[in-house]
Records
---
Amino acid sequence: MKTNIIYLGDCITILNKDIEENSVNLIIADPPYNLSGKSLNLTNNQTGGAFYKVNENWDIFKYDDYVEFTKEWISACYKILVHNGSLYISCTQHNIAELITVSKKLGLKLNNIITWYKTNSMPNITKRTFTHSTEFVCWFVKGSNWIFNYEAIKEFNPKKTKDGQKKQLRDFLDFIELPIVQGRERMRGENGKSLHPTQKPEKLIELFILASSNENDIVLDPFFGTGTTGVVAQNLNRRWIGIEINPTYYELAKKRLYHNLELFNVSN
Ligand SMILES: C[S@@+](CC[C@H](N)C(=O)[O-])C[C@H]1O[C@@H](n2cnc3c(N)ncnc32)[C@H](O)[C@@H]1O
């Protein structure tokens, strides 16, 4: 199977048609949250129009269609995972219930819900709820023999003992503090604007790839966006596969991954 490759198209079609069953060790998925198209009512809004946190066509579904879409892509992921494979799915309160219900029905086991605390999250604009500052990542496994690289996670933990040794994981929890991607890591156009609204931090993805795969394993991302999963997998000597439906983001990911890298020699 070809790896270190980006497919342009719908992930459900490509997962069912182009990816071999029982072949992928780890899937990192950052799907649409069905959050767009819902404007926020702001008192004294002076932006000249409705305010949206994220407003992208790929992120707008009717509720029943969203549940159906969730069933289809998670079922397709289940088929291609190896017998002890892992599936990490990013979510918020908007879609966590649907993701967990669908995954459990398929027989996936939920091992952890990792909380990402966004240290630079948006201010409380509506003043009608508690301030949203977290996203979640559900870690599901197929079968009971999953990989968890405990030693690698101890190494990942920036906190060390007084004499510089790795610490036990008592103080490294299912919780990680990281800012929303900014600075040099953020993909920006010449006008300085972000090129993708939901680019994920590399450090977050590094945690999951280290924990649940080994060198040379295959890591697949069905919602590739800017290609963050590919970049981290490449750095950690894993093979990777990305799928992205939007031609603009597909080109962006290609540039990000193939820039300065001799990756065009796709392995088989
Ligand atoms: C939440 S973003 C992922 C961002 C990514 N994690 C990153 O760091 O850049 C979801 C991406 O999935 C893509 N997408 C939406 N529906 C898709 C589908 N059916 N098949 C493949 N890609 C899809 C969108 O175009 C978008 O780029």
Note: Strands lie at 5-8, 24-29, 81-91, 109-118, 134-141, 175-178, 218-221, 239-244.
---
Amino acid sequence: MPRIASLLPPAVARRHHLLERLHREGTDTYRLLHGIAEGAPGVTVDRYGGVWLVQTFRGPLPAGEVEALQQAANQALGLDLPVVCNHRGRPDPDAPAPHQPTAEALAERVCHEAGVRLPFQARHRGQDPWLFLDLRAGRAVLRAAAAGQRVLNLFAYTCSAGVMAAAAGATQVVNVDFATSALAVGARARDQNGIAAARCTLFESDCLPVLRQLAGQPVQRRGKHVPYPRIEPQPFDRIVLDPPRFAKSPFGTVDVVRDYPSLWKPALLALAPGGAILATNHVPEVSAADWHELLRRSAAKAGRPLRDLQPIALDADFPSFDGQPPLKMVWATV
Ligand SMILES: C[S@@+](CC[C@H](N)C(=O)[O-])C[C@H]1O[C@@H](n2cnc3c(N)ncnc32)[C@H](O)[C@@H]1O
């Protein structure tokens, strides 16, 4: 058995309890092999519903190794699923012929998290397949606290967190992102779960002016003539704040390393009394302890001191060497 495929049976054994729980709750989407932390630098193996997805971030794998991974995964889980390999590292002209997946495996398909249908595309221009699996533990906390609540999902991407919240009974969900194509996937996710469009809206906009208006703060922009949608301040009971590491826009810069408070403070101000924020930080160089301290300090400075700050641990399909995974999540209540 090629070396990487031989890593799968022990990785599946380590996930035994998690997989039992996920299958019980209607989740068919998880990571089976998590790169270097499990002895496979630059290689991950995921199940997305009815497909194995092998992603490579350094060199692509020869087709034979991809097929060996497929066989090992099917055997370990007692399934018979096709495999797709998605190389996300630099293209390599000398690499062996890429694995050729079936057309059916490459089509847009649906996977499930806690019984909720979420669209994915296994190989999609070398990018991620529309659903970030490591955020599952955060989505679970949101889901448990969503019934009867008004939810704002910032940097919503394909709206998976917003759709999960709506499926869990949120009365109103507003998903904000400036990427039209990502929101279009979100619309399909919403519709595939029979969620009324009015209860789970998609707002195509820069998040910065939206957030500042919701917080009652003046909008900053580079140039007087940059248009933005005008909105009235309205309170939200739950806010998802899952920003990218760095992004520039006409309304400022998202910079999670140098300036998390410029997102965090207005998010706190947009929160209804007793509300909660699911916040993330994906940057490996930022330690959980430093980030938590910053969140506490800047909340106090903004006049919205935190009642509680609960770190959310990643599920066991995202192991790390030292218990310091790059993705940090908290559930913060005011
Ligand atoms: C890491 S993804 C967020 C993942 C998402 N929260 C989820 O649950 O899957 C980052 C998203 O932020 C969006 N984005 C980045 N800067 C933005 C901005 N200033 N305004 C609106 N969207 C922005 C991108 O379009 C992208 O969809």
Note: The CA atoms of residues 15 and 316 lie 6 Å apart.
